[in-house]
């Protein structure tokens, strides 16, 4: 994507009522007014809040919002030029129950208050295979602690990935730390009875992976 195109998307994001872009300082200094107030101030309802972390183009968040109008969805990514597509679609199609937050995932517990979130989706994260990158792996122990802070006691996390490494690493960590694995599948498109929202909704990259006959894995779990 050219720099002019990126700049245009950044500027357009600023005009969207469903895009929120706090600075790092606002978040870490606890001056982000939406923390604890997403339902009241953004969605104007008391429905469950579902996050998509690393939402990319935002198509999963938008599709979930259409499928579940009685839930609120927030796509989170640091790359605003990417989720511009999802935000624009939501504006054009008047989808009121989806919003987008531009921030780093490691700051997620600064953007939401304790027990404010009902569910988390992690869709096709970078598996960060190299050892020195493990601190950025989105299902490592440090990230799970952040998610636990903001999730309701009964809240669940969904991991959908084409990386067998990420799938295996996460399962091993969950079992090792005593978290509760509710569902795990190495190939959701080949297994009968896979959850509908896992197979009916696809990201842009997921459809490409499927064309290449890559297996899509899925884990649903609760953090102890």
Q: Quick gist of this model?
A:
This protein has helices at 3-13, 24-28, 38-43, 59-67, 80-92, 108-111, 141-150, 164-177, 196-199, 204-211; strands spanning 19-20, 49-53, 72-77, 98-102, 117-123, 151-161, 180-185, 217-222. It is an alpha/beta fold.
- For the terminal residues, how far apart are their CA atoms? 41 Å
Helix count from the secondary structure assignment: 10
Please provide the count of β strands: 8
Tell me the domain tally: 1
CATH architecture: 3-Layer(aba) Sandwich
Q: Which class in CATH terms? A: Alpha Beta
For the sheet with most strands, the description reads: 8 strands, mixed
Show unreliable segments. Answer: none
Based on CA atoms alone, the radius of gyration comes out at 17 Å
Please report which band the strand proportion falls in: under 5%, 5-15%, 15-25%, 25-35%, 35-45% or over 45%. 15-25%
Output the CATH homologous superfamily.
Vaccinia Virus protein VP39
Structural class: alpha/beta
The ordered string of helix (H) and strand (E) elements is HEHHEHEHEHEHEHEHHE
Strand order of the largest sheet: 1-4-3-2-5-6-8-7
CATH topology: Rossmann fold
Average pLDDT over all residues? 93
């Amino acid at each position: 994507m050219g720099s002019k195109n990126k700049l245009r998307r950044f500027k357009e994001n600023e005009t969207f009522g469903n895009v929120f872009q706090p600075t790092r300082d606002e978040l870490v200094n606890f001056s982000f007014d939406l923390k604890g107030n997403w339902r009241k101030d953004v969605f104007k309802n008391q429905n469950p809040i579902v996050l998509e972390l690393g939402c990319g183009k935002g198509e999963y968040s938008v599709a979930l919002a259409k499928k579940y109008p009685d839930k609120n969805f927030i796509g989170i990514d640091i790359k605003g030029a990417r989720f511009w597509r999802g935000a624009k679609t939501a504006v054009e199609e008047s989808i009121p129950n989806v919003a987008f937050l531009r921030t780093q995932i490691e700051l997620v517990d600064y953007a939401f208050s304790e027990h404010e979130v009902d569910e988390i989706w992690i869709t096709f994260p970078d598996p960060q295979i190299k050892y020195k990158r493990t601190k950025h792996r989105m299902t490592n122990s440090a990230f799970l602690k952040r998610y636990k802070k903001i999730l309701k006691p009964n809240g669940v996390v969904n991991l959908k990935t084409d990386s067998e490494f990420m799938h295996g690493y996460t399962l091993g960590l969950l079992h090792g730390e005593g978290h509760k694995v509710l569902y795990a599948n190495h190939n959701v498109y080949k297994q009968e009875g896979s959850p509908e929202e896992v197979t009916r909704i696809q990201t842009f990259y997921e459809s490409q992976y499927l064309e290449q006959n890559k297996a899509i894995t899925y884990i649903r779990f609760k953090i102890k």
